[in-house]
Structures are given as structure tokens and as C-alpha cells.
Amino acid sequence: MQVKNLAVFCGSKSGNDPLFSAETMALGNYLAAHAITLVYGGGNKGLMGCIADAVMNGGGKVIGVIPEILLEWEHAHQGITDLRVVADMHTRKKLLYELCDAAVVLPGGNGTLDELFEMLTWNTLKIHSKKIFLLNCNHYYDHLVAHMENMYKEGFLYEAWRERLIVCNSTREIISFLN
User: Angle formed by the axes of helices 46-57 and 18-33, to 10°?
Assistant: First the structure.
């Protein structure tokens, strides 16, 4: 799989587990070292800021996409290669999708899940076939994975969900797919 631009969806907060930031930084370092452009939500706080800083500190390229309404809330990252301010959340997600070759979902909250499920739905509808990776570090997404399995078992999904979403327990596992 040739990935030149990787979308990363993650929290604008860092969460309580230091492993979340460590795994995020490791992914950012990898992207910078391998000339893979980070495409993300444009914020400078939480895991969003962590990955952007790691890529920039490593001499990499970062494209941030932030809606006007979140400029103050997520605090737009002014130290990245390219910050694009868009009208709304829908435009943000569409542009993030258009700019990437694959996506990684790190720990996050409602916005991260919204981005995950929109990408996953588009993938299922065959609007795209981009790989989507879920970083389940320290079992953060275990309940979500169990729920996805239950939706499949109960007949609410059109296909096996693991065909569309690759669950990894570490950044190292994600990197093995990207190599």
C-alpha cells in the first residue's frame, strides 16, 4: 500500500493515559521520517497538537483542516505547513477524505467517532476504498470493537466490518501495514 498522505483522526484532548500521547508521537515521528504528509483536523491541543508537533519537529509536512466554528475551541495550529479554514464540519470531513490515501483513528471523543463512522460508511458504500486503521492502544476501543461485532452478529451490517476497519493495538502494527 502506497501512502503519501495519511489522515489522522484523534482527540483535541490528550486523555488520561500517557500511552495515548506516546503512541501518537511515535506515529508522527514515523510520518516525518518517511515523508508521509499528515492530514488532520488542524488543532494545536491534545493528541491533535501532539501528532502535528511530532511531524513538524521531524521536518515533515502537515495539512490541517479546521472549520471556522472550531478556530477558538480547538485552537488552530499556527506552526504547521498548511492550515485550511473551512466553513463547517461537513466540509472538513470531505476535504480530509479527499486529501488522504488512508486514515488512522487514534483515541478521541465524539468528533473522532463521527469521523471514523463517516469514513467507514463511505468505505462500505464503496464511495472509496481507502484503508482505515483503528489504534486500540491499551484497550481504549475494546467496547467499540465489541459493539461493531455485535452489530454484525445481529445482522445490521452488510458485510464483515473487519473487511473495512483494521484494528491495531500499537503504532508499530499500523506502521507494518504502511511499510
Answer: 30
Amino acid type, 157? L
Q: What SS3 class is residue 61?
A: coil
Helix (H, G, I), strand (E, B) or coil at 145: helix
Work out how many domains the chain is built from and give that number.
Answer: 1
The CATH number of the domain holding residue 11 is 3.40.50.450
The answer to whether 43 and 66 have CB atoms below 8 angstroms apart is yes
- Residues of the domain holding 168: 5-178
* The overall pTM is greater than 0.90: yes
Mean pLDDT, rounded, for 7-31: 98
Q: Could you tell me where the DSSP H helices lie in 34-139?
A: 46-57, 89-99, 110-124
